[in-house]
Amino acid sequence: MFSAFDHFLQSLSMSDQVTSSISYAFRTLFVALLCVTLTVFARFLLPRILRFLAPKKIMPYLQIWNKRKLLKRIILLITPLICILFSPNFGSAGKWIVKVMTFFTIIIIVLIIDSILSIIDDMYRTREIAKKRPIKGFLQIFEIIIIIVFGTVIVASWIGESPIVLLSGIGAFTAILTLVFKDSILGFISGIQLTANDMIRIGDWIEMPKYDVNGTVSDITLISVKVDNFDNTTSTVPAYALVSDSFKNWRKMPIGGSRRMKRSIYIDMSSIMFCTEIMIDQFSKNPLLIEYIHSKMPKGKPLTYPQTQLTNIGVFRIYLEKYLMSIHAINSEMTLVVRQLQAEAKGMPLEIYAFTTETDFQKYENVQSDIFDHIYAIAPSFSIRIFQEPSGYDMKHRGD
Fold this sequence. Notes:
Elements: H1 3-10, H2 16-53, H3 59-67, H4 70-75, H5 78-86, H6 94-125, H7 129-132, H8 136-159, H9 163-168, H10 174-180, H11 182-196, E1 205-208, E2 213-220, E3 224-229, E4 234-238, H12 239-244, E5 248-249, H13 252-256, E6 259-267, H14 277-283, H15 290-296, H16 312-325, E7 337-340, E8 348-356, H17 361-378, H18 392-396
Helix pairs in contact: 1-2, 2-5, 5-6, 6-8
């Protein structure tokens, strides 16, 4: 191809050294311009051809390919392939051009494989099973194997040895690699355990106080788990930590359609008393307590009858049970208890234990707040005082 130009240079009667330099410069310039032209042309034309010929149903996949730069990396192969093709025209430098371009070709192939694996993962994530069985960790293992194999091929091409000889010598470095990549190996084994035992999925809400983690799992890789916390921070937890340490997974909460509410109020014990006739008369007019009061206070029985004596705290507890049962947002098919706990210096804890049908954080908190707003407001109607530490206001009005 370049013989005509070489004959033209020889006709100019220049020295062989100058003629050779100009000839190689021309060849280098020609190959460089050819590489640039074909690369620019391919980058401009190929995406448009694909968008024109591809059916609409695969357009989302083309977007994924573009995101992972698959086409751009394939186009990068043009330069080393052209250089290898024209290497015989560069004399003794041709074999070095082949070695260098082979090196770059292998690197580009590894990048292409990386893009393909990323595309596979992205397409797999669009399926529902991806939340239960993520494959990113396994794809990373395959990518590591590819890098090791191709890296061995690169080294073998430079030193002139067979890749099989180098691969057989890798076993000698196993002990060293085990020490250097201890965390990666632990993470790899733990990642398999997490996936195989279905301990964690993408989208799970997990809590891990040791690592200050409280949020949604957004990614599971070979050696780590990424969590988007509810305070808009991101935590990365080693995969082996989820196996060796304890963590709380709230997955069953949204699946079961209920969320537990467990919260106490402290009752001032000096406000606990037997019910008077006026109190019982007042309670018997409450729609939620009519049946209970009539069952405990049969007609013709005196108020002091031992088996039917009522206390304001007892009636209050029954009222709260009936009140919770009447709320639509409370799951009546699950445990619902209003119980007394061991008395403390702050008073007697009265615990509300129930399950709401709202699992969303904001809706759940709204339901819980509405319930306790009502409890705090209704308590004085039962002559019950809610305990709180004395404040400056209490001290100021103590003598009033």
